[in-house]
Specification:
The complex is a heterodimer. By secondary structure, chain A is of the alpha/beta class. Chain A has ten helices and ten strands. In chain A, helix 3 packs parallel to helix 6. In chain B, the strands form two sheets. Chain B has a two-stranded antiparallel sheet with strand order 1-2. Chain B has a two-stranded antiparallel sheet with strand order 3-4. In chain B, helix 11 packs antiparallel against helix 16. Classes of the chains: A alpha/beta, B mainly alpha.
Chain lengths: 233, 621
């Protein structure tokens, strides 16, 4: 349902992405793996229309979204949870959710704050707390909940396990499996192979702005040389 | 006792109108990050439109208040029109651009108002039913003032509810922090910004309209109010509406009581308070430490390119042409050329602090004026000769920059820009109000060059020599290690400090250097004109400098020269016309929209590489 075909991207004169192609099927969880600076976040930003690509195409439900502004892409049902969470620190939990709110969509699960509080029980206890006074893990949950308020049918998760406590990472894995159960397609960027293995159906490895490997997680496990070449620190 | 209470209430009443303007400015700045000079024009339009509608609508209570509301809403619509046609194109442009563009709007609206309403002050009617006065402790207080005193807090409450209790308000507060993220969550930023502009300009229009019974509508309202509104917004904290209210009351009372205690320096008081607040609380009374705004970065600065061989020949050819000009040109051309040279130095010195220094200075006229006044005062009181006068000029300006710079380098971004503006306003107020010493509005006359330089040709050569040498020295400084450190500091303050450079002291020194060279320009100016007036220190002169730098393009060392030459010639051409402001403003807007990289940048795109050096490769995002 989500297809990236041969995109590139530049920051100034530096080429960040070169001919990147992959796809995510309906209800599928795909892990975008790679080291720091490999181009994972830029890939997601390009898909969201935040970074422009001069070549290639991005399609969503068969429709090209490459030249569209971010808000239109979001309204079509593609949700984005950014790296570093980007919570509105001056706004309360409820207000953060309000910003993400969009109309009900026939092809996607419908979320309300109450339904989200069942998925993230911690958030229910801090409805009126400003986002700036929450822990990293709590902010990460709020960031995901905020994006879900837009009722997406597919979601881009940029490094959800980065910088949060191990016990929360486990909870995050559980959340992603819940989202898959609800029928959402998920593209997950990760450096943490262990975490990615827990939740993903397929893996795409990106290195220096190019795709180096695509396959099932199982295949990746059986080929330690690929893992060592592109993911070992 | 009654007298002081009356004075206090008057202060509160003026605070209300000021608060309406300042809160609108603050709201617009909070979301769009545009420092909108045209906000004062919205205020002025509010007053003029209210005047018009009061006369059209039936007289009486309903007609009067109807006129005020219609006028405010119409100003809101004008704000929306400007947002869609102009501001929307420059949200991602550097601050300088936005500032100069909004100043272009100021010029256009000034001439439109002159054309529609004429040059006479227009006195509005008193508010029906509120024309009388109430006695409080024996002092008469105008009823209308009491209404204004209530109106201020009422609007504060309404704005607070709008921002904290509606979905729109939540979205606006979110966008104030992270526009890009708001957009990625499905919110159409464009319309959010447009609606913010509507609310902000309506508030400015209302501020102007309710002022009509107290103050005649006039063509000076725009720049008069914008200076005060900036002060209020900065003292209160950019983007904070309650802060704007607090600061309005503070400034309103300061004016009401200041006039009793220090009638000589009322104009300086507000700016002094602002300077003190910024030093103690760099983000204003109720502002928040400026989180880096995301999703609004302009393109990265490119490295400066040295001259190519061909352009070196061109520079020598230009120098030769300038040396040879007096042989063929008449006196008029020589005077114009001298002016151009002087403003070239002014623009180059401003560019030095803004481009390589990365410090936006909105008050560069301060140093130009300090140089000119320094020389003029030395002649008037010490009777020094021209050479000494020309030595005093840069010293005076350099000392001024030493003092102002010390405060300024402690701030960053818009607050820095506002403090430089305040510094210039303080200098201007002193020159304007301290009549015994500076001659006030009458200026200082009779500052003529020495015998040997009194011929236009001789003075031209003197100007050429000093300007040429100064520009050469500035260029050398930019390419010296000191210049590298400055440019590095502009690009990343943290990294520069991490490698052991004390950036603040480097920037402080840059302030002094830029002050010295602007002072030389000011000294040359006063001797070429024979007189100096406070106008040379006014906001308009600072903006002239900014326009020159913008015209030439900020990312090029040749830019300010190209800019100063084209600006001075253009000004010489159009100011002879009746409606020159609208032409001039139009030209500025045209350049901002069509050639945002400035004339020199635009030329670099179309000129061959033998002149410009290797062109940039790769694709810009």
């Amino acid at each position: 349902m989500l297809e990236v075909q041969g995109i590139n991207a530049f920051y100034g004169q530096a080429k960040i992405l070169d001919d990147v192609s992959f796809s995510v099927g309906a209800g599928e969880v795909v892990a975008l793996l790679g080291r720091n600076g490999a181009g994972k976040s830029t890939t997601m930003k390009t898909m969201m229309g935040m970074v422009s690509s001069t070549k290639g195409d991005v399609t969503f439900n068969g429709e090209t979204i490459k030249k569209l502004p971010s808000h239109v892409i979001c309204q079509k049902g593609l949700g984005y949870v950014p790296e570093e969470r980007r919570i509105f620190t001056e706004l309360t939990v409820m207000e953060n959710l309000e910003v993400g709110k969009q109309d009900k969509r026939p092809d996607a699960p419908f979320w309300t704050p109450d339904k989200l509080f069942k998925l993230f029980p911690n958030l229910a206890e801090m409805r009126n707390r400003p986002g700036g006074q929450m822990s990293g893990g709590e902010q990460q949950m709020l960031s995901i909940a905020r994006t879900l308020m837009g009722n997406p049918s597919a979601i881009l998760l940029d490094e959800p396990s980065e910088g949060i406590a191990p016990v929360i990472v486990e909870q995050m894995a559980f959340t992603i499996m819940e989202l898959k159960k609800e029928g959402l397609a998920v593209l997950l960027s990760e450096q943490n192979l262990h975490f990615a293995k827990l939740v993903s159906d397929r893996a795409v490895i990106v290195e220096k702005g190019s795709i180096r490997y695509q396959g099932t997680v199982k295949e990746l496990e059986e080929n330690p040389e690929i893992r060592d070449a592109y993911l070992a620190v | 006792m009654g007298f002081y209470l009356a004075q206090f209430l008057t202060g509160l009443a003026s605070a209300s109108s000021l608060f309406l303007v300042a809160s609108g400015l603050s709201i617009i700045f909070g979301v769009t990050r545009i420092v909108n000079f045209a906000h004062g024009s919205f205020f002025m339009l509010g007053a003029y439109l209210a005047y018009t509608f009061v006369n059209i609508l039936p007289h009486g209570v309903l007609g009067f208040w109807g006129a005020i509301i219609v006028a405010s809403l119409l100003v809101g619509v004008i704000g929306v029109f400007l947002e869609i046609t102009l501001f929307r194109r420059i949200y991602k442009a550097p601050e300088l651009f936005q500032l100069v563009a909004t100043f272009g709007v100021v010029l256009v609206i000034q001439d439109l108002a002159l054309w529609i309403w004429g040059a006479e002050d227009l006195f509005g009617p008193r508010a029906p039913g509120l024309g009388g006065a109430v006695r409080i402790l024996g002092e008469p207080i105008p009823q209308y003032d009491l209404l204004l005193i209530v109106l201020g807090p009422a609007v504060l409450l309404a704005v607070w509810l709008l921002f904290n209790k509606t979905r729109w308000g939540t979205l606006v507060r979110a966008a104030t922090q992270d526009r890009e993220m708001v957009s990625a969550l499905g919110v159409n930023q464009s319309w959010l910004f447009t609606s913010v502009f509507f609310v902000g300009s309506t508030l400015a229009g209302l501020g102007g309209a309710i002022q009509l019974p107290r103050e005649a509508a006039n063509l000076l309202m725009d720049l008069n109010v914008i200076g005060e509104a900036f002060v209020v917004v900065v003292i209160g904290g950019m983007g904070s509406v309650p802060g704007a209210f607090l600061a309005s009351v503070l400034i309103g009372e300061l004016n009401a009581f200041g006039i009793l205690i220090f009638p000589e320096i009322t104009l300086v008081l507000a700016f002094l308070v602002m300077a003190v607040v910024l030093v103690v609380r760099p983000w204003g009374l109720l502002g928040k430490p400026d989180a880096v705004l995301r999703g609004a970065d302009g393109p990265p600065e490119q490295p400066l390119k040295p001259f190519t061989a061909t352009s070196k020949y061109l520079v020598w050819a230009l120098a030769a042409a300038l040396l040879a000009t007096p042989a063929i040109a008449d006196e008029f051309v020589l005077v114009l050329l001298s002016d151009i040279l002087i403003f070239t130095l002014f623009a180059v010195s401003l560019h030095f602090i803004m481009g390589p220094g990365g410090l936006v200075s909105f008050g560069h006229a301060a140093y130009f004026g300090l140089g000119a006044y320094g020389a003029a005062l030395a002649v008037k009181y010490l009777g020094v000769d021209m050479i000494s006068g020309l030595v005093v000029a840069p010293i005076a300006a350099g000392l001024g920059a030493l003092v102002f710079g010390w405060f300024c380098v402690r701030l960053s971004g818009v607050y820095l820009a506002m403090l430089t503006l305040a510094a210039a306003q303080i200098t201007w107020s002193v020159a304007f109000q301290w009549q015994d010493v500076t001659g006030g509005d009458d200026g200082i006359l009779g500052i003529w060059p020495a015998e040997w330089a009194s011929e236009k040709m001789a003075y031209y050569y003197l100007t050429l020599a000093l300007v040429g040498a100064s520009v050469y020295v500035i260029r050398r400084i930019v390419y010296a290690p000191f210049g590298y450190a400055l440019r590095a500091g502009r690009d990343s303050q943290l990294r520069v400090e991490a490698i052991g450079i004390n950036l603040k002291s480097q920037q402080w020194m840059a302030f002094v250097i830029t002050g010295i060279f602007a002072g030389i320009a000011g000294g040359l100016y006063v001797y070429s004109k024979g007189s100096i007036f406070p106008d040379e220190l006014h906001i308009a002169r600072s903006v002239d400098g900014l326009i020159m730098v913008l015209l030439g393009g900020i990312q090029s060392l040749i830019g300010p020269i190209v800019g100063a030459v084209s600006f001075t010639m253009l000004e010489d051409l159009v100011t002879r016309l009746d409606y020159w402001r609208i032409i001039f403003g139009g030209v500025i807007l045209f350049i901002v929209v069509i050639a945002p990289e400035g004339l020199a940048g635009f030329a670099r795109k179309i000129l061959p590489e033998s002149l410009t050096g290797k062109k940039n490769e790769g694709v810009q995002i």
